[in-house]
Structure formats: C-alpha cells, structure tokens
Specification:
Blueprint lengths: L1 E5 L11 E5 L11 E16 L7 H7 L6 E8 L8 H12 L10 E4 L9 H8 L9 H7 L8 E9 L4 E9 L12 E8 L3 H13 L16 E10 L3 H21 L7 E9 L2 H13 L1 H8 L6 H9 L10 E4 L2 E4 L8 H11 L3 E7 L5 E8 L15
Parallel strand pairs: 4-5, 8-9, 10-13
Antiparallel strand pairs: 1-6, 2-3, 3-4, 3-9, 6-7, 7-8, 10-14, 11-12, 11-13
Helix pairs in contact: 1-2, 5-6
Amino acid sequence: MFDIISLKNGLENVEGFYFGGVSAGFKKDGKNDFGFIRSDEPFLVSKVFTTNKFRAAPLEHALRYGKNFSSNFILLNSKNANAMTGEAGISDIDEILSNIPLNLINPLMSSTGVIGERLKKDKLIKAISKFNFKSKDSNAVAQAIMTTDNFKKELAFRVELKNGKSFNIAAICKGAGMIQPCMATMLCYILTDAKIPQSDMDELLNGAIKQSFNAISVDGDTSTNDTVMLFSSGKKDYDKQAFKAALNMITLNLALMIVKDGEGSKKVVSYEINGAKSDYEAQIVAKKLSNSLLVKTALHGEDPNWGRIASTIGASGVECDPKTLSIYYDDVLVYDKDHTELDEVREQKAHKVMKKDSFKIKCDLGVGKGKFIAYGCDLGHTYVDINSSYRS
C-alpha cells in the first residue's frame, strides 16, 4: 500500500536537482525564456520524442547519446524551436553548451517556438552568465518554457510507502496548441528522487504517455519538438506499483491542463469508449472523436445532436453497428436503437450537459469488451457553421 500526497512548489520537492530561469530578451514582456535543470551527480534519463519525421535539432542532438545514458544538465529555451535547421542547428547546441561553466556529462538542450530559424547564439550565451546554478526555483524554469500557454503547468507529489519511507515526483510542462494524440507542441520534464531502474523508467514512462499525452487532442497537429523526459536522481526508496500510480497521475493531470489551455478552447471533454471489439479499436474511435473538427465545433456551439459523434465512429473503420451503439452525454442518453431522435426533454438535458466546462461523451459500441479514454476540447478559433444538424 502507498499514499500519494499533493505538494506545492513543483520541482523544489525533488532531491538532487537544481533549476532556474532567466530572461534572455526574447519575450517582449521580459519574462523568463531561458532555463536549466541540472544535478551535481549524473541522473538517469528516459525520453519519448515526437513522431513527426522532421525532428528538431535538440531531439537529434539527444539521440546521438543512444538509448540508455545518464546526463547532469539540460538547457531549455522558448521562442525558437531550432527545428528544420539541419546540422547547423545541432552545432549551435554544442557551441552554446560549451559555454556552460560546469563539468557537463551528456548535456541536453530542449527548445520550443518558431520553426526554421537558427538560435540567436550570442544572446543565449550572454544570458548564461545570469544563471544561478545553485538555485531551486521551479516557477522560474516553468515560466521559461511557456509560449502560448495561458497558465503555468506544474505538479508535485510525495509518495509514502508502507515501510515508512517515501519518494517525490514532480513535473513542469508546456503546451497549448499543435496537439493531437501523438504528443503535442509540448515539453514535459518529470523529476523524481526514487531509485528507479532504467528499464522501469522506460516501461512506465511509455505506459504513462499512452494514457495521457497520447490520449489528448487540441487541434490535430503534431509538432517537431514534442518531448517528454523523466530524470531520476536515485536518492530515495522505490516501489514500482507506487511509482507507476504517481507517474500516471502526474502525466494525466498535466495532459488535462494542456487540453484546458488549448488555444481558443473553453471545454474539456473525455471520450469514453466501451464495448469495442478490442482495446485497440476503442483507442481508434476515441482518438477519431477527440480529433474531429466537426465534433470540436459542435462542442463549441453546444449542439447536443449526436449525428457527428455517430458519423465519426462509423467512419473510423472499426467494427460497429447502429443496432448496438449507445451514446451518452454524461448520464443523458442521446442515442440507442430505441431512441434515434432526441425528444424535447432529453435534448434540454443534453444541452445543459454541453454547457458545462467539462463533461463526458460515453459511447458503447456493443460488439466486444475493448475500452479506451481520450481527451479533447472544443475549438473556439475554428469558425464552422454548427447551426444545421448533421445526420446521415
């Protein structure tokens, strides 16, 4: 048994790390746009990168180290993605990192911002002198990776084990646009002081991403810089089941923050698919629904008509049958074979559900036991006429 307790102050709860942020002068409001995370001793690294074939220079730079490696430093910047910059972009990283006045082991860099522009090396190198490499300022480094984000994304938990010992896990994240279920224009750094084996890090991180960052959609695009990294200082006890639960909790909550912060969005919706032929087919349906622009604009218009939901399921290619399908908005039945039209009472109830900031669309395909949950939002900046009902 174990207990997971929420903590304040983000990364500051994790032993063995230092972090901070400064302004290098790229953000017009003077807020931090340049940060770091480091340790005195090497930390284990587990990483998952974008599926976009045009990976940005920082990702290609990190991949040079191979699958399993340790590091003791990562440099972070916003306002410039260093993507589509070729070998020159990788060389720029090496030059910038060579100016860090520390003994670096497999140093990393991570970037977000405009694609297709070289890093402004001189400004970044000059700003390095502003860093206090002994600082532990989670807010400063969380702010440094924000771009179009409307709010800071930061979480921390203490996990108390049955033997009376504990470990901590914390994370910062950015992301608000270019997001679909292949990760996002997002950067996420998860720190823990649990002494977790490398093999468990990779296994559990991939599992956590599947049910969180790879289960969300904002606008259906996939960036060149998507990055999730897990760092372990190994300072404290470790329990696999407890760590898995805490990691899943932290990634899911951060993923939902991204959806909530989606550019122009006002609603967070979960798509709970049950009764599919397999979990894989349930995943296909859930992600089709979370990605559908027709569905997103219907959510924005608070249109309770179920036609766009059913149409998207039918177009997904999975096994389904209108005779076994049922669709609910929260607990309000909007469709099954005996209720193909919304009567006035159910329509009013469904409309009331859709006016909420957060709700569930639950679909049972009735053909098996497969299930999956995806998360999405409306798309407030997409102008599509949702006044005419969609039926087929």
